[in-house]
Write a structure and sequence with these properties.
Structural class: alpha/beta
Number of helices: 8
Shape: globular
CATH superfamily: Vaccinia Virus protein VP39
Strand content: 25-35%
Bound molecules: S-adenosylmethionine
Number of domains: 1
CATH class: Alpha Beta
Order of helices and strands: EEHEHEHEEHEHEHEEHEEHEE
CATH architecture: 3-Layer(aba) Sandwich
CATH topology: Rossmann fold
């Protein structure tokens, strides 16, 4: 199945095959793709797309004339194949290389060489990571920001998808302990229902409630009337929970 993404923040439409592994193109993917286009003036040189899935974000980033190379990391073997096909079809194969990696650990020799080349020289990172089932749901993002330090140069730009329901406190501080400064929110979707039919989101929601019960900051869903509600209130039947998918910019301070 193919999916066409029209709004890439001014970088032109992209069509990707979605399928085996890597999931599809979600509202979070669309917001992050648009955000790349919106800040294209600040993206140049070498970038990493962490968890590239279909390859959509890497393809969009590679369209920026000042971007020389994008290293796209993906753990799922099926998704790696899909991403490589999409990248070739988009005419970006000369600038995007897909490395099969678990986190930042390449799973083959060629991948090791490719990542070693960008160690300390990476100018930007884009990521739409999965929600984690542990902690408050942001553990994957914390782990990836920690791992990325080895590759990013000081001053590098990071574009990270974190939905509004995590609340601004978590969004601002997610990378604070390992050298990242929140800059701004680049792009946001309309408020839309949090999709409890998606297994990954339903599991993440359980982690949110547990994090609140453990004393963490409240989550910030919204009702259709615009009231802010916590995860525990939603679990207790506060009605439909809405969220806004968002892409935020951070600076790596080194
Ligand atoms: C939410 S999807 C985003 C896909 C794509 N970047 C997009 O925005 O449409 C997250 C991706 O991260 C990948 N992923 C999950 N765990 C990973 C890991 N340990 N290392 C690398 N990639 C991982 C998944 O396979 C999936 O393709």
């Amino acid at each position: 199945m193919r999916c066409r993404v029209d709004d890439t923040g001014g970088l032109g439409p992209v069509e990707v095959e979605v399928g085996e592994g890597g999931g599809g193109v979600t509202p979070a993917s669309l917001v992050t793709a648009r955000a790349i286009g919106r800040i294209r003036g600040q993206l140049a040189g070498v970038g990493i797309d962490w968890g590239c899935g279909t390859g959509l974000l890497a393809i969009v980033a590679a369209r920026i004339p000042t971007v020389e190379r994008v290293v796209a990391l993906e753990v799922d073997a099926g998704a790696v194949e899909v991403a490589r096909r999409n990248i070739a079809r988009a005419g970006s194969a000369d600038r995007v290389v897909v490395v099969r990696a678990d986190g930042f650990v390449p799973l083959d020799e060629e991948g090791r060489r490719t990542l070693a080349e960008v160690e300390g020289y990476t100018d930007f990172l884009v990521a739409n990571p999965p929600a984690s089932r542990d902690g408050d749901g942001l553990e994957w993002r914390r782990r990836l920001l920690h791992g990325a330090r080895r590759y990013l140069r000081p001053g590098a730009t990071v574009l990270l998808q974190v939905a509004a329901h995590y609340g601004m406190e978590r969004i601002r501080t997610v990378g604070e302990r390992c050298g990242y400064r929140y800059v701004d929110t680049v792009e946001r979707s309309a408020w839309m229902p949090f999709d409890f039919d998606r297994m990954d989101l339903a599991e993440a929601f359980e982690a949110y409630v547990a994090a609140e019960v453990a004393g963490g900051p409240p989550f910030a869903f919204r009702t259709p009337e615009g009231w802010e509600v916590t995860a525990s209130e939603v679990a207790a039947g506060a009605g439909p929970a809405l969220t806004s998918w968002q892409a935020h910019r951070y600076e790596f301070l080194g």
